[in-house]
Write a structure and sequence with these properties.
Elements (H helix, E strand, L loop, with lengths): L11 E2 L9 E2 L7 E2 L2 E2 H4 L2 E4 H6 L22 H18 L3 E5 H4 L6 H22 L2 E6 L18 H20 L4 E4 L5 E2 L7 H21 L5 E4 L9 E2 L4 H10 L6 E6 H6 L4 H10 L3 E5 L18 H13 L7 E3 L10 H28 L1 H9 L6 H7 L5 H11 L10 H13 L1
Parallel strand pairs: 1-2, 5-6, 5-14, 6-7, 7-8, 8-10, 10-12, 12-13, 13-14
Antiparallel strand pairs: 3-4, 9-11
Length: about 450
């Protein structure tokens, strides 16, 4: 079998002092953190679309990276070459999972029947590679945003014919996800939104989206899919107003339409910041609602107002992310690198360097998050902050054994309340720095 990355060795852990660009400095798969190997805390996944398809094209220029893998693009030979290259890539990095959109895997056909035939063929080929390597599918999804037919959305479209085409894509993507043993199925509503209310019936569109999701759940369960359905929140881009703005909005939508028992969140760091939130905020909101499912591990550039999908290198952010994940008891999905190398980083070595960077960043974040938990000062402060609710009137409030009238009477007898006390934000940020750099 052809080797596409023959100059690149299997990437191993060499420790923080290593200067080998093709070695992990912090990701030690078997290292035990809080009773569990690092590889179990961090089930990393390769993103098929960025890693095997994206060529560095942007709004101002054509691609800079050759992803033909010595095959003619737009052919099934190219589709299979991407499979071969992808599995070689994952094996050399020790990555256990991959994620895909349907049209990442194949050149889309002129008809849904033609596309489905190609997906059957490539699915069989991928399954052979999975059986040979032990690599698994984290999640699948259908691309219902790139083709011009989806200019007004898929579930939110004004065209019943387009709606049916979207349903057909979802059905086939679910078939393939089940065939490949995927742990989840994602809905990213990239064009489920609107540009102006002057031509939009929001209620109509949201009801249609919910109906499509209900049909997907019903069909998925009927063919044996036992994993999580996932929504990936994003506030804007490509649409000006997207219906899955952030975790809170998406959770509210799921509960309004009775989908909350089957769906969780797939949180992306870059989407969180586009919504005006921190990454850890979106993780915390998902977790406290019992909906923290999977994570798209990347980061954005705070100087740019769009989705840059950079490989994560900010250890402070990764630490706070992993702190949320550990406090939530882990995630049911994994860590998919929805990240791409920068346009001038156009070599195969750069592809590996990007994943090494991302895996090391989250490994170091995991190590430091575990240290924060073991240090205990953050938990101790938070517990002490709310101690007035552990006894007396506070305890009655928490146990719902009081009334508005009783609380008002208590307040009148009390007079002016004492100060709630200092939030000590600067002290706590110093604790984080102390643990990070000691």
């Amino acid at each position: 079998m052809k080797e596409y990355f023959n100059t690149i060795p299997h990437v191993k852990y060499e420790g923080p002092k290593s200067k080998n660009p093709m070695a992990f400095k912090y990701y030690d798969a078997e290292k035990v953190i809080l009773g569990k190997p690092m590889k179990e805390h961090l089930p990393f996944a390769m993103a098929w679309w960025h890693n095997l398809c994206a060529e560095g094209t942007d709004m101002f220029g054509s691609g800079t990276t050759d992803k033909s893998f010595d095959a003619e693009k737009g052919t099934m030979e190219h589709a299979k070459a991407k499979v071969d290259a992808g599995f070689e890539f994952m094996v050399k990095l020790g990555i256990s999972y991959f994620c895909f959109h349907d049209v990442d895997l194949i050149p889309e056909g002129d008809t849904i029947a033609e596309s489905n035939k190609r997906l059957d063929e490539i699915g069989d080929y991928i399954k052979e590679k999975m059986d040979a390597t032990g690599i698994k599918c984290l999640w699948g999804t259908a691309n219902m945003f790139s083709n011009p037919r989806f200019m007004n959305g898929a579930g939110s479209t004004n065209s019943a014919d387009v709606y049916c085409y979207a349903a057909a894509q979802i059905k086939k993507a679910l078939d393939l996800t089940v065939k490949l043993g995927g742990r989840g199925y994602v809905f990213w509503g990239g064009r489920e939104g609107y540009e102006t209310l002057l031509n939009t019936d929001v209620k109509f569109e949201q009801e249609n989206i919910a109906n499509l999701m209900h049909m997907a759940v019903e069909y998925g369960r009927s063919i044996g899919f036992e994993g999580d359905f996932l929504i990936e929140p994003k506030p804007k881009e490509p649409m000006k107003h997207q219906y899955d703005f952030d975790a809170s909005t998406a959770i509210g939508f799921l509960r309004q339409y009775g989908l909350d028992k089957d769906f969780k969140m797939n949180i992306e760091a870059n989407h969180a910041t586009l919504a005006g939130h921190t990454f850890q905020h979106e993780l915390r909101i998902s977790a406290i609602n019992g909906m923290l499912g999977s994570i798209d591990a990347n980061q954005g550039d705070m100087l740019l107002g769009w989705d840059t999908d950079e490989f994560p290198f900010d250890v402070y952010e990764a630490t706070l992310c992993m702190y949320e994940v550990l406090k939530a008891g882990g995630i049911t999905g994994g860590f998919n690198f929805d990240s791409k190398t920068r346009r001038p980083s156009n070599s195969y070595e750069d592809m590996f360097n990007g994943y090494i960077l991302g895996m090391d960043t989250f490994a170091l974040g995991l190590i430091k998050a575990a240290a924060l938990i073991e240090d205990g000062r953050l938990d101790e402060f938070v517990s002490d902050k709310y101690k007035s609710f552990n006894e007396g009137i506070g305890k009655k409030i928490r146990e719902k054994k009081t009334s508005l009238a009783e609380l008002a009477a208590y307040a009148e007898e009390m007079g002016a309340p004492e100060s709630p006390g200092s939030g000590k934000q600067e002290y706590l940020e110093g604790v984080v720095n102390n643990v990070l750099f000691s």
